[in-house]
Design a protein that fits this description.
Shape: globular
Number of strands: 3
Strand order of the largest sheet: 2-1-3
Membrane topology: Multi-pass membrane protein
CATH architecture: Up-down Bundle
Subcellular location: Cell membrane
Domain G-protein coupled receptors family 1 profile: 39-288
GO molecular function, one term: G protein-coupled receptor activity
Distance between the termini: 71 Å
Helix content: over 70%
Number of helices: 12
Protein name: Olfactory receptor
Order of helices and strands: EHHHEHHHHEHHHHH
Low-confidence stretches: none
CATH class: Mainly Alpha
Radius of gyration: 21 Å
Length: 308
């Protein structure tokens, strides 16, 4: 019989001793975080300050960039502290806070991408009705629904927080829900089922909706004019690349959290668990900043004015 005790902190067992190399790792992670914040803030400022970009597609992009800031801030400052620390522990309240940030970030990322695919569907497949269907109220409602998703995550965290735990060791470099559920002394069936519905449900429902909208877009493109095809390629390419990149990263993390991956090298497991939290916030601003000509031109002009 396992000893049930009140857990006041968790130990993150995925960290290992790196000696003086920890200062190099700290500088790399710090530089990456500053770069991510700078890129996303720059694009948010560009969209907010230019009225020509106050269109649905760019407003949804702005919501996406804000979510990248939210997700990366839920991870990077914590990583920086842990890299320099010799004892890798985290208090229970902070662990649940980070768990909330990580899981809500993932859900809101998929919802943002789904809403953007709906916007592209209306713009390409129903151009004559686009302005009447994509009104200011509808834009505000869609963005609000995306950012209300954390309420769903709150319930999952509540189910996890009431579990009696028989251990406090998490084999990750950050806190996640399933790692804590696996520490439960009693049956955690309800928390497990809800976690699966919240994670896989959000992921697959959003992906099915995105696939449906893109099937419609491709059908229009194949039978449409050259101008229609060019418009679809220029606006949909970064969006599809973003969906693919995030889905690969999220799949890595879901598989790793649900199956035994101890046979894989520890560095590979750490990389796979961090991929969707580190690469996506960097990938999106780079992809959209380089591929959308309006953002690229206005951003270049803004930077040159600041330099002058």
């Amino acid at each position: 019989m396992e000893l049930i005790s009140i857990v006041s902190y968790f130990t993150l067992a995925a960290y290992f001793q790196t000696g003086t190399l920890k200062y190099l790792y700290f500088m790399i992670v710090l530089f990456l975080y500053i770069f991510i914040v700078s890129l996303n803030v720059l694009l948010i400022v560009v969209i907010c300050l230019n009225r020509s970009l106050h269109e649905p597609m760019y407003l949804f992009l702005c919501s996406l960039f804000v979510n990248e800031l939210y997700g990366s801030t839920g991870l990077f400052p914590f990583l920086l502290v842990q890299i320099l620390s010799d004892i890798h522990t985290v208090s229970v309240p902070f662990c649940f806070l980070q768990m909330f940030c990580v899981h809500s970030y993932g859900g809101m990322e998929y919802l943002n991408l789904a809403i953007m695919s709906y916007d592209r569907y209306l713009a390409i497949c129903c151009p004559l009705y686009y302005n009447t269907r994509m009104t200011s109220n509808k834009i505000a409602t869609l963005i609000a629904v995306t950012w209300l998703y954390p309420l769903l995550v709150c319930f999952a965290i509540y189910l996890t927080s009431v579990l009696q735990l028989c251990g406090n060791t998490i084999y990750k470099v950050y806190c996640d829900g399933h790692s804590i559920v696996k520490l439960a002394c009693s049956d955690a069936h309800t928390a497990n089922i809800y976690g699966l519905i919240a994670s896989f449900g959000t992921m697959f429902v959003a992906l099915i909706f995105i696939m449906f909208t893109y099937m419609k877009i491709f059908l229009v493109c194949f039978s449409g004019s050259k101008q229609t095809k060019q418009k679809a390629v220029s606006t949909c390419t970064p969006h599809l690349a973003s969906i693919f990149n995030f889905s690969v990263g999220a799949s890595f993390e879901l598989i790793q959290s649900r199956f035994n991956m101890k046979s894989f090298p520890s560095m590979l497991r750490i990389f796979l668990s961090l991929y969707f939290l580190t690469c996506q916030p960097l990938f999106n601003p780079v992809m959209y900043g380089l591929n959308l000509s309006k953002i690229r031109v206005i951003g270049r002009n803004l930077m040159s004015n600041v330099g002058d």
